[in-house]
Amino acid sequence: MNTRLAQRHVLVTGAGGGIGLAIAQACAQAGARVSVVDRAAQPSDGVKGLQLLHPGAVQYLAADVTKAEDIEVFVAAAIEQSGPVHTLVNNAAVFEMAPLLQADADSFDRLFAVNVKGMFFVMQAVLRHMVDAATPGASVINLASQAGRRGEALVAHYCATKAAVISYTQSAALAMAPHGIRVNAISPGVVDTPMWAQVDAQFARYEGLALGEKKRQVGLAVPLGRMGTPQDIAGAAVFLASDEARYITAQTLNVDGGNVMS
Ligand SMILES: NC(=O)c1ccc[n+]([C@@H]2O[C@H](COP(=O)([O-])OP(=O)(O)OC[C@H]3O[C@@H](n4cnc5c(N)ncnc54)[C@H](O)[C@@H]3O)[C@@H](O)[C@H]2O)c1
Q: Could you tell me if residue 55 is inside a domain?
């Protein structure tokens, strides 16, 4: 246990598993009260374990970030239970891929609904509270992706959603700077999570690979020689949420083992 986020309240969306859960764990470990949001009606086993480890400090809120009515309810419930939000981690997202000529409107709508619309309106709802409360040290961390840095032939819609995350991060950072609220993004590379199990299965389908082969290939291609773990990303989130990052805003931080240099 450390105290970098002591007395802080961190709200993490999509934190039932994967990177979001690891960020929730790291923030609780750093002394924060944590509100965990995900779609399932009941908390996952990982969230239950976190609640046992940090009694009274971790609350679970079932909500769909694509629904405006859910956003109002979970943001209000988080604040009522744990006080003003110091850091929002906008992590919920979905992944789909298809060859460009087959990338259809339904897939576009599903991806943009969560990754862009959900991300933006959760951020807006929490920022309104941060501005009203003049919360000291307030910040937002959006989960972008290396996929937002350049296009990919099979992944056009998802790449576009993550480019939008980077752009909204910059606009929100400029809008919020006069209020002393920082807005940054983290851009992971390839991280071994439930999402990557889906990515691997879809690449297997479109590239005729054996299951697990794409994961092996992308891990080997990382300059540091392996896929990331959710915990590799969580440390960057704790840093960006902390006062150590007090002069950092409008940035998208690559946490990817060296895949992207920008
Ligand atoms: N895994 C990677 O390699 C990788 C790489 C780059 C960026 N990212 C980004 O990091 C973030 C986390 O990725 P992950 O790999 O842990 O994904 P994941 O699929 O393992 O977890 C995402 C979580 O979001 C939740 N979620 C999805 N739609 C939701 C909705 N409408 N409302 C509420 N919750 C919802 C899911 O239930 C799930 O628990 C995402 O933004 C993803 O795009 C991941």
A: yes
